[in-house]
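Box 3.1. Reading complex inputs
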Amino acid sequence: MTAAGSPAGSAAWGSTAAVPSIELEVVSFAYPDGTRALSDVGLRIEAGESVAIVGQNGSGKSTLVRHLNGLLRPTAGRVLLDGRDVRRIHVARLAGLVGLAFQNPDRQLFASRVSAEVAFGPRNLGIRGPELDERVQAALADTGLGAEAATNPYDLGYSRRKLLALASVLAMRTPILVLDEPTTGQDARGVARVRDVVARAAGEGRTVIAISHDMRFVAESFRRVVVMREGRVVLAGAPDVVFGEAAWPELGAAYLEPPLAAVAGARLGLGATPTESAFVTAVGRRRGGATAGGAGAE
Amino acid sequence: MSAGLVLAGASYRYAGALGAALAAVDLRLEPGRVVGVAGANESGKSTLCLVVAGLAPSVIGGRLDGSVRIDGVETAATRPHELAQRCGLLFQNASTQLSNTTATVLEEVAFGPCNLGLPAAEVVERVWWALRAVGIEPLAPRDPARLSGGQGQLVALASVLALRPSYLVLDEPTSELDPAGTRLVAEALARIAGETGAGILLVEHKTEVLAHIADDVVVLERGTVALSGPAAEVLADPRLVELGVEPPAQVRLERAVRAAGLEWSAALAEAIE
């Protein structure tokens, strides 16, 4: 507390000041075959926010996040990082700012050893020697692939190839981390690993953006939820708002369903309980409140 | 008498692998039934799909011991193109399923039935039936290479359904689907099993889906069957968590409330229905 404001703790990315804000200004995008994927999307994501993007299949989620690292350029509108148009940011610089783990790992993996795969990204950022080794080890440990450094990526099952794709992006230690359906195909332990990765990155002050259909993961791991429908952002807010009863019609129109904990909480009149722990707390509070009221204590 | 897909003491080892990926698996899939398969990553679920569908060993090699019979016929003694008509397999990664040779979703879904040499009218009928079953008729004119991940997965599923095999082996068919798409596919599969009498083997991490439509559930652990039985029993089994399988939300909520020392009342039970 004496050293308030000291940047000593935030080693890898300097300080949180190095994490740029993201702003999409009325972004529209159409694929070459004419399919309109984004229509007038306006979205601002502050440095260090954790944001989940949800929506029906084909609602434009993957298209949207591919605008963040310059993989796609808007047909109209602008994408700004700290106020700078990403068109004007050199691709190599952008790669160091925004790490994107693809939905389909096979579009991303190409090396013949797991460790080489993970080293590729940071090496391209100019990292060498012990720091490179340290980053590779840390990323493999975070994704539970520590024992697979020498394995060929294609000898891993699909779920672990997905974790490898995640490790490859983690090793770049970008201030902005974008994950396209990171929990898909993961078992309970895999989902827990992904949850830990998100929590750690957010705890370090990085911006974490994830696309997901797993509403429990969304409610538990993210501070803000952005709902997309037919290429537009139709709803955005904290999980207790987006999964709250008042938002259900809008969610339903986007073909989404709140997590069961939220539904059960609303049915019981417990208020907003987007997560299972919030539900249990609310049940306990009601019971406790009833008991305390009976004893005349409250 | 011999109808059904039956594994008896089935063990399988990939070519060049030291250990067995499946060991002494017994499993029975009757026509019209849905058997769910759950298990941690790399517990053998996808291998089981390859073995059940007869792709292993007949196409990919390796060594199979024990017996895998489809309606009384050993898969090891059956040619791949004959197997393909009895048992349709949906791969985990939809992009490896699509042919990459067609310009539209309509043609993609027609690819299989055309290869079966069916008359054009029947191909058309089957294609629209399959597109309708998974709710993607509007995608018919689209380029399969330019679909979202979840849309691609639905196209791959429709392509398998259009073959109308007696048995369907589906390796995580809803993994990339939104909740509404997941519900739609689950209901379509339950209907297909009920109406066409197809037997469905369904690998799923989403245990809510299994709770909804599976008759029986098998849980694999390191290539062996760790749990099996009626879906409701298996999905409420306390060992599920240590086997790396997330119990359905209903089961989790009840457990969490009880673990907090609170009573699980009838009102709570009703609220999670």
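In summary: The mean pLDDT of chain B is 92.
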